[in-house]
Amino acid sequence: QVRRSDTEFSSLYTNYNKKQVIDDLLADANAGVSPALQDFFKGLQQVAASPASLPARQSMVSSAQALVSRLQGADQRISDLYGQVNEQITDSVSLINTYGKQIAKLNEQITVAESAVNQVANDLRDQRDQLITELNKIVKVQTIPLGASGIEVLVGKGQLLVMGNQANQMAAVRSGADPSRIAVALDLGAGNQELPEGIITGGELGGLLDFRRGTLDTAVNSLGKVAANLALTFNAQHSTGMDLLGQSAGDSGFVGNFFTIPSPKVIPSNSSSPVVSA
Questions:
Q1: Could you point out which of 2, 98, 115, 257 has its C-alpha 20 to 30 Å from the C-alpha of 219?
Q2: CB 107 within 8 A of CB 75
């Protein structure tokens, strides 16, 4: 029960701390996206009230530039968060491997010690329990007795990490679907087998994967939709108007688009050959 509670707490605490960063970034009353949007629409209302006023027009352009800068800044911060999550996943996998090797070694030492003196090696067992407790904070752990002295250690949803005195190695690799993301894989010696994120649960590692999949991906997707929809909708309306020179859509000097949107970026898979463009 303690282990289940510990690994769940560790997962939720990691997830919560990361979500706070997103919340501060997007919902802050002073530095978030919403104030910049409000300032832009205030500038737009001033131009609507006085279309020929050059100061009002310049104020609107300035507020639009500030909005674009705020959106780009938020996007960069989210990109930085992806990088931090990648680094933390790599560190967590390294710790899992370290604990796995130490537990496997203690399994062997306990078996040798107890078979030699026919007594329980309490000190060694306590060390093993402590390592399992620490491992459980990184990823959910299940233990199964193996003989009189050894144990099997399963992580996540049943992935075998330790069996007696043998420890499997995990690896942090670039995802086959998106090379910009670090995924967890099983080191098979001759190569790595990427594991589905759903089987890595609990602890800091499970919390990081949940945060990236459930919050970070949603945040960057939603932010992109807000920016694209605002730009497309505003441009469509803006292009129906007339500039100060009396030019409108179809005239050679008329600029219909107020905002510009970058071209779509396609991230190639590193595990398949078809090339997709957008």
A1: 257
A2: no
* AA letter at 163: M
Query: What's the token pair of residue 113?
Result: 């010690």
Hey, how many other C-beta atoms are within 10 angstroms of the C-beta on 183? 23
pLDDT value of position 29: 81
Report whether pLDDT(114) > 70. yes
Rounded to the nearest angstrom, the gap between the alpha carbon of residue 66 and the centroid of all alpha carbons in its chain is 27
Residue with tokens 């530095």: 31
